[in-house]
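ugh ok fine here u go
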Amino acid sequence: MNDIQEKIVENKKNIKLFFELYNGNNNKIIVEADKNRLCQVISNLLNNAIKFTDEGSITVIVGTKKINNNNSNKVIVNIKDTGTGIASEILPKLFTKFATKSPIAGGTGLGLFISKSIIEMHGGRIWAFNNDEENKDDRGSTFTFSLPVKE
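structure:
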């Protein structure tokens, strides 16, 4: 979070960064994963949020959720921004190779594809939506991924 805050300042953006943890009484959430690859995913999602948000906020929300069909816990990570949102024609192919449309994007268009591969290799799932799908007055987008919690 400190690195991301520095990047926001470095890019002279008017963005507030928030972090929220929801895990009942226990603050530790343990997942069995490659720490470097997981950091790569989080960094990619946060860097994209900064890239597409000039002002407003980026909120990282981490919590656990019991999945009823197999009675196991998952960690859920949400990265919500108040940026431009995702173009409707890009949304269905967002996690495929070279899925980019924006001149803002720059880069190779591989970051989300790689992130999806990493999350799926760890037994998780990743998805995204525009915030106005949940509340018509909201701007930006939310990227969410889930991973199995080590029991």
